[in-house]
Write a structure and sequence with these properties.
Blueprint lengths: L1 H26 L6 E7 L4 E8 L5 E5 L7 E2 L6 E2 L3 E5 L4 E20 L4 E2 L4 E2 L5 E20 L4 E6 L2 E6 L4 E6 L2 E3 L12 E6 L9 E6 L9 E6 L5 E2 L1 E3 L5 E5 L6 E7 L2 E5 L6 H13 L6 E9 L5 E9 L3 E3 L2 E3 L2 E3 L4 E16 L4 E15 L8 E4 H4 L2 E3 L2 E4 L5 H8 L2
Parallel strand pairs: 16-32, 22-30
Antiparallel strand pairs: 1-2, 1-15, 2-12, 3-6, 3-11, 4-5, 7-10, 7-15, 8-9, 10-11, 10-14, 12-13, 16-20, 17-18, 17-21, 19-20, 21-22, 23-24, 24-28, 25-26, 27-28, 28-29, 31-32
Length: about 425
Amino acid sequence: MQVIQLVCVFGFSVFALLVSILDTRSTRVEHPGARAAVYFSDGKVLTGEISLTPGRTFKLNIPRAGKLKTTDMVTGEDVQYGKVRHFGLEPVREIRFYPEKEEMARKWRFIEQTKYDEKTAKADYSPAAKAYSGRPYPLRYLAATVIFNSGESLEGHLYTTVVYLETKEKTHRLILRSKQRGKEGTTLDALVYVRRIKLLDEGMHVAPKVTVKFTDMCFGPTDAVQAVTRESLTPIPTKVTDSNDTCVVESAFGEKFYLAVRKDGKYIVGWPEEQDKELFALAQDHLRRQRDFYNAKELLGVVKSEDSREVLTLVNLRRKVAPTHFGAIGGEWDKKLGTVVEPWRLSIWRWKYDKANQELILSCRGTFFRIILLPKDPTPEVIISEKLWQLQQKNDIVIVGQSQKKGVLEERSNE
């Protein structure tokens, strides 16, 4: 009887999963896309309405030497390595794909040929030979350049994404990959790929720079402001202007952002002051159990997403030196200072939230500030600010620090 019940439950679960998948596919047509022309490597061109699956975005991995850069808080150099940016179709003007590497490959396996002499106990560790089989097949690696309505562009590798192009004849399901592999015996010319996607509509206006006006705060020469994108938790270039109460955020690509401020040695972060006590306790337990380079982790705040599927945590992180019977463990050796230092970060961690089982799975991290401390230095003080959380934005202007005033916004927007 129990076996029958288990089979019924399992069958119902599979049925529910299939229904949810079909329901997701059916809802796609309810969200109209934008007009676009899609160019293929074989010369074919299709024009129609292009769209993404609802809830999905493009993900572009910006490799080393990517154009988008920010300031490293430790070295002071402009670096941006391996960051992933999320964006939809609205801020995009064009996406271009080009072969980064092409080759004809064959299946192979290593042939074990290690020779061992039992008398001398010596082995031949020369590289093992490869044995090839089958006919050659084409292999292509694609890079992408994304041009935004702001005139800015990013270069990198696009994660596999499915787009739908609805023409007069039918709806085409196009799979955009960064790696293509053809069948054995075919050529690279037969391996067709999307070469260009050009949006024909004007699209969403995206300002290359967003001005943030602080109504109750001024900054000195040692103060700083840092923005982190809300979707991908990527730190983006943020600079204080000469007016001392205004900063400029660049390369947001229409994405909203979180703000944090370093002022007079203290760190102020935009975050809700009211906390869900039960959720805070759950996040604190998972943060404590999370194995990480930073062995001193303090939970400062927690907030749940609107759909209750994700949880954001604000954490104060430090790699502290811990004395043990085997000597000091932890910290990090600094060559310039010639001593052990303790890195510190003020970060946001995003978790996948399983409400039924009360489980959190870490999925993404973003950092506002990162500095190097000596073991004797105190951990920087962090203050939560509701004003920095409730950002009031109109076009490319953000007001921080007061309730929305129509006159102020209109005056700034007309400048």
